[in-house]
Amino acid sequence: MTTGTSTGTPMGTTTSADGQSAARGGTNSAVATWHGGWLCSTRAGAFELTVDEPPEVGGTGQGPMPTDLLLASVASCYALALAWAARKNGVDLPDLTVTATGTYAGPRFGSLALTVHTSLAASVVTPLLEPAKRVCYVTNTLADQPDIAVRMADPIRTQ
Known about the structure:
Elements: E1 30-34, E2 40-44, E3 47-51, H1 66-88, E4 97-104, E5 109-117, H2 122-135, H3 137-143
Antiparallel strand pairs: 1-2, 2-3, 4-5
Helix pairs in contact: 1-2
């Protein structure tokens, strides 16, 4: 089960230790702790998430898969970006959902598709799609692959 509490953090701020916003070069971290099998607990800001795999692949089904969280990040970030673009352009979005669909290609997604659902006419929403894409942190991160560094931390010393 995924749990968490709202901290009221405004959009655009990070949960970094130094408090800098991402726009000013701050950092943001999430920490995953493995509990055996395919089960992890993850702290992301002030939120605790449970991550697991479904039973049919050896997990216990206690939480979403990591790829589900990636899709959730893409969908939610783009939805927030689209809401921002709508507000900026004086458009009232009475309802909005964004579906992110990943198509597997081996051990990765080969493609991601976002589908926007709203009762507003396409002629009203379509001009907002590109401005939203420009300010969506997650889709921008995926579109311009970041370098991924993996390193060992210093060993934990017990006394």
